[in-house]
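Entry 14. Ran structure prediction on the chain below.
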Amino acid sequence: MDAKSAARERFDGAREELIGLSHRIHAHPEMGFEEEKASAWLSEALDAAGFAVETGVCDLPTAFRARIGSGPLHIGICAEYDCLPGIGHACGHNIIAASAVGAALAAAKVADEVGLTISVIGTPAEEVGNASGKILMLERGGFAGIHAAMMVHPAPFDMVKAKIIAASMFDVHCTGKESHASAFPELGINAADALTIAQTAIGLLRQHIRSTDRIHGIVTNGGAAPNVVPAHTSARYIIRSETLDQLAELRPKVYRCFEAGGLATGAKVEITGGDKPYAEMHHDADMAVFYRANSEALGRPFPNLGEWETRPTGSTDMGNVSRAMPSIHPMIGINSLPAVNHQPEFTAHCVTADADKAMIDGALAMAWTCVDLAGNARVRERLITK
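Output, structure tokens:
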């Protein structure tokens, strides 16, 4: 039996357990850095399969590393398992987590034979938008010794090289002065007006930024009562650009909009966060070629998607990983249209038969890609020596 067939045989033996794991995580959504159940379930599954599991790594209680094999090429398979507020697993991180475990189980079967070391990297809080799990783990040595990394992400359709752009999330706090909104309005400083002016300025700014830039946010506190001049308001915003360099150009323009709100009203404005942004994704060409071939061998073709091939699809801290080592982040389709990521309807699709098949195919395609990376002398040498 060849290595890929052996890997598939190992996966098939755990198929139903992996589907159950995906559904269990989906049924118990947990916010970033709070994924206690998901992290424990994933760690337990890997420990039971013979992996050496370390939990709470990098001073992050819900992060983990699980390792097996002793080959010279060390591949990291990233697991994400946090949810979105209010709509649960509307980005399918239950599928990501289960496919990472499945890929590792399958590759582990042949790791020593083909010259692999496999690590599952449990990376919390991908959805937080700043100073996230992968970024902190990169800083703290969580990816040390790994030559290349991969994961698959659910989407309405399959894409090998989705356009993933840089992003930065930050909070804005405006502080004014309370007063009776009718009797003594002149004695107040309206912190809500400061945000209103900032949002108007951002609307005008859109004419003078790149068409690929994105600015979006929410008001997290608009005041306490309509008859009290608001003294404390806040907002949370995300800005995005195609690259970190472009993001650095956009950031001061947006910040000045908030500063303008403070200047016009007299409110004090404080901006926090935004210091550890997500980088754009760099897809490794060789890894992408192998993954595409393996996915197609499993009956998952990659259609011509027109504008979807070039329009931004979002941002992820996997982009930061891709700047540190060769990486891929293909999208795997769950046949959800018209539902798309970050919609409640997409949440429901993430435990359908199509979603289960995506988890299975994604896991096998990644496991087979690991085998190909180890078996190709040119690529193996490049990854090890990079």
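The first helix runs from residue 3 to 27. Will compare against last week's run tomorrow.
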